Every structure is written in C-alpha cells, then in structure tokens.
Sequence to fold (616 residues):
Amino acid sequence: MTALAAHELAQRVLVRMLYDPAFCEAVYADPAGVLVPLGLDAATVAQIVAHDRRAFSVDPWRGHRAVTAALGEAAVTALAMTRLGVATQDHMDFIAGPHFHGCVMERGVLVLAFFDALAEGLGGIAGRLGAGSSRRERVALQVARACLALERAVAEVRRARPTAEAGYLVRGAVSGVAVPVGASAAWGRARAALGADPVAALVSGGSAAKAALAALFGAELGAATEWVLVERPGDTRDPVMSLTGESLVGLLQRAASPVPREALIVFTMGEGASEVEAGEIVDELIADGLLVSGG
Amino acid sequence: MVNGIAHPAPSPVAGPGHPTQGAPAAGGAAARPFSERVKDLPRLGLGVSTEYGAMHAGLDPLALAERHPGWAGFLEVGVEVDKGLDAAALRWRASGRPTTYHFLDVNLDEPEDLDAGWVGEMAGLVDQLGAAWVCGDLGLWHFGVRDRAHMLLLPPILTSASADAMAAGIRALRAGVGREVLPENPPGEVFVGNLHILEYFARVAEAADTGLLCDLAHLAMYQRSRGLDWRAGLDSVPFERVVELHVAGGDLRDHDGYRWVEDTHGGEPLPEVWDLLGVFAERARNLKAVVFECERNPLDAVVSGFAKIERVLSERGWGRS
Fold:
C-alpha cells in the first residue's frame, strides 16, 4: 500500500470504525494498542476516542447497506452457496473481515472485495468437504464457482474505464470467462427468476428464490468448458454476455493490463493466423471496442 | 475471422448546452483573484434543492415556482454522475430557469477521484444544466473507488494538510468543469483534527482562492456535537467569500441515550440556524444565493420555513431576487 498522509489514514480508520462495530469496540477497548500499529499518532488516537462511543453507531445500518449492495451483484453466487450451508445473512460477516477492511485501507472496489471474500469462502468450503463430499455438494460447489466467475466479470466490466499509454493496447469494457458448459445459461435463468430485487428474494427464501434454485440446478453442467464474453457495448451501463471462443478469451486475458500491440499479434499468430491476418484481427477488435488503443 | 478470435454479436444478460446565466468560465479565469471573479457570479436569490427522484417523494420545484416565484429563484440539483439528471431537473432546465450543480460523488482530497473520464462526464452535465456554479460538501462521499449510490459523506479530517489537499482538488475541478467550485461544510457526528470546522473551511477557501457555501444546519449540528456555542468559530469566517447559504431542518434523535441531530432536510430548522442566518445575511456582502433544502417534503410543509427565511433575509437588507 502506498504511504498515506496522516489525514488519509485517519479517515480510513474512521470508516472502519463506523462500519464495523466489532472493530470500533476493539479500538475503544485498547485505543493505542489497535490504532498506533496502524500508523496513527497519539494525538489523533486521543481525538478519536474522545468521542462518545455511541457517536459511531448512530447509523447502525451502514454495513448492512454496503453488503446488500454487493450482494445484489453476487446474487446467484449467494443463491448457489445456500446449497453449501451458507445463509444469505451469513454474508453480513463480510464487514468484520479482512477483505472489507483491506478495501477501505487500500482504496479498493467494494463489490470486488466482496467477490474476493466469496471466493475465499468457497475455497474454505472445498477444503472442509474434501474427498468425503457428496455429489450434491460437489455440484453445488461447481455451480457456485462458475456463478462467481460470471458475476465477478459482470461487476468488473460494469466499472471498467480502460485507458492505455501510446503504443499499448488494453482490453476495453470487456472480459472473458471460462466456465463449465451450461453455466452461463443456468446463471441467466436463475438471475431472471430472482427478479428486480434479488437480495429481497434471497432473504425471503420465497417462491422467487425457490424458482431460481430450480433453474440453477435443473440441468447438470457439462465436463467441457464454455467461453463467455462479457462486454458493455457502446454507451450502455449494463454488461451483456455471449458465448465465444477460447482464443478470444485468451487474447483478452493477455490484455487485462496494457500490452504492446506486437505481443497480441504474436499471440494471434500462435493461434494460426498469418502476420497480416493477425494485424487485421487486432485492428477489428479495436474497431469493435474490445481492445482500446493508447494512440 | 480466423481461429475463433471473433467478436460475436452480444446478447442481453438474462434478468434484469444551454448558456450559463452569465456565469464566467472559471477554469480559464483562474488567474483572476476570487475577489474579482465573484463579481461575475449571478445573484440567484432564494432557491430550492432537488436530488435524483426526490420529486416523487416530495417537492415539485416547478409547482413551487408557480405558487411562490420568489422562493424558487433557482434549483440546486444534487447529482451523481453515474445517475445523471432526472426528469424534474431537465424540465426545470427546459423552462429556462437558473440552476446550480451540487456534486454528490467526489472526494476532492483524492487526486485519483478526479480522473479525466469522470470530470468530462460531470462537465457535460454541468453544461447541460447551464449551472451558474458547482458546489458540494467537502468530505468522503465514498470509500475506495467511486461506485454507484455510495453516498457515504463523512466529514474531512480537520487539519491543515487535509485542507490543502481539498484546495488542490477544488482548483483541479474548477479547471475541469469551467465553473466556480464552492466547498460546503458537511454534516457529521465524528470530527477528528485540531481545527474548528470554520477554521478548516477558511483555510480551504484561501488555499483554493474560492468562495464558500456555508450550510447553516450542518454548522449548527457541528457546534452541538462538539458542545460549542452556536457562535463559536465565526470570527474565522472569511465572510467576503461566502456566496451561498443552506438552510435545512434537522431532527433530534436519541441513540441509546446519545442525543444527536440527523440531517433530515425536514421542514423545521434548529433554532440556532435562524440566528446564524441573520449573522451571515448581515455580514456576507457577496452572498448570491440561499437554498432551503427541503426537497423531500410536501409544499405545504415548507411554506412557513420559506417565509421565515425570506423575512430574516429581508430584515438584514438581503431581499428576494
């Protein structure tokens, strides 16, 4: 993490205290012990805890609102995780966890931090299940991981503002995802079934959630891989999905951070194109907005 | 296309410049001191605020303008760039009436928050509104990277270093959108730093060479939360820089025995807000605009508030526009 100015550091610590009651409680229990190691000076520590502790909780729903917003973008993943014993309410623990606090301290993207926490949670579940897991659990884990990959890509593309320096290319508001065959269709059916307020549907566990679960697990996913392109065409704000080929996803993954044009030409030639064809392909992807040129 | 590197036709994911009311292009005129630039700012009088979708829950600004033209001299439009402008704001603009642009989504002390793409989009909205100037609370509108509907708004850390960082952001935004950018003192319950909030804003204004928007309701809340008299810190206010005032209602709350004031924009301001309005109306010789922030209330609930603001301003020699 880049060194923060004292006021930036103090501001971020206050955010953590305002969102996470457990962290706030820890600070008041041992102000210097918690805050000085974070880099705050003694005077700032004293100013913080000079407040009535209740001042930090006059809006007790801050954390709930943050998780609800993130859950709205990870709704089908959360739905799949209910099959693994993770209740929707359990996700509220995110606020007390390292991914939330890291996001605040490192100026991250809240919803992506939430996806990181979900991925870690799924990893932990996989570890606990081990070789003794049931088929139902293995399927649930496979579906949850696929949904996480899809929903994370949608969240990333929704926020993408790609730029590149001159001579470099970077992928546009677009991402490529590899998931088991059938996953994107199952995700789409489940997301539609959850409706316009997916978090409410999840929390209620009512007919919409039941229909979404049936849609998600109604057909077995294939052993093979399907390649999904997630993009935000033109001025639209909400991403769209389509099936594509492995080569395009591979190329976009190489352009996740700016790369020289020559590197993408070489990759495309490696997929069987001639040098001329490779140049035309890259130019066409630029024209379509899948690649952004730095000039 | 060869070898599968093709761009398929996408399919939907299943599921769900008007003129500027005579305002100067502040960015290009930054070499002139604010004491001169302020003379170019239009006098907007008494006005009202709105935010995206607020009209559905409360006040219709055009209805207010028809019934009480003197209370709707302009519309202050609260905007998140990601959401854009709602139909009520566009209708107001189409009527040719003046506006100001109140940002709701930028941490001005974070240079990375002022990326060219966002500033460009904001400048487009400011032009679309024909805003006389830009204003907004200094503070933390969002933690982490800007995102949809964060609307956090925590006060800044009240230190000189923070004030200088905010001032740099104000200068950058002023250049980027070509309008004056008036910083506003925010609400809050937790204030950290060695400066009184009015000292902090005086430093910001000096360092950015800008005007100020003083929210009198927020100031009253600050004084109460710090256990201070409502007059505390007024000696540090550069009144000649005060261009705009906000008046708004706040509601007393009790949280586990802790008494605090919520910034509800209700119809009834705290008593000391009226005292502050009198002081500022009397001493702020460059005051151009006063907003009654009451956008989520029905018209009948705010009539007495508007009438009282008008009376206090008139008593101090600052009549309606």
User: Anything to note?
Assistant: Residues 13-22 of chain B have pLDDT under 50 and may be disordered.
